[in-house]
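Posting this for the archive.
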Amino acid sequence: MKTRFLGIAMSCFLSLSAQAQIVQNALSFDGTNDYVDCGNNASVQITGNQITLEAWIYPTSWKSLVWQGNIIAKEQNGFGNDNGYMLRAGNNGSLNLTLGSGSWSELISATNTLTLNTWQHVAGTYDGSYLRLYVNGNVVDSMAANITISNSSSTLFIGDNGSGARYFPGTVDEVRIWNI
């Protein structure tokens, strides 16, 4: 099977916000105004019925709602025009994968799935049949779904979603976005 990694690292690092810091090759976010703007390169305009979003995270606090702590976000909001993809953390250790195809399809793990002040690998996948969330290689939640991901015309962000109110508090490393 042929796979393709959608590279984003170089374009992201060239457009860091003023406050985001690279800490020993990871990005540190204060949770209040730090993010990375990765632009809207064709390589991150994923459509169809397969996607994998993954990153290493070290959360330092939780936002009160899971949708407020964006790790990876490329979303377009609007009535009947909800498109894109997001991987988020918050709400006392919940993990969230959201995919858009005119409306949002969400999978949210239970609270305490993630741990504060600890490095952990998180991933959200969709294979055309199931949404799945992983922590450290273990499936923590899954559900059947029938989604055709629609492209968002928005910018890809790490640490926020571009709204200026959904910042991830902690450190993020090795972000990967795959079309498989």
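Residues 5-178 form a domain with the Jelly Rolls fold (CATH 2.60.120.200). Residues 1-19 have pLDDT under 50 and may be disordered.
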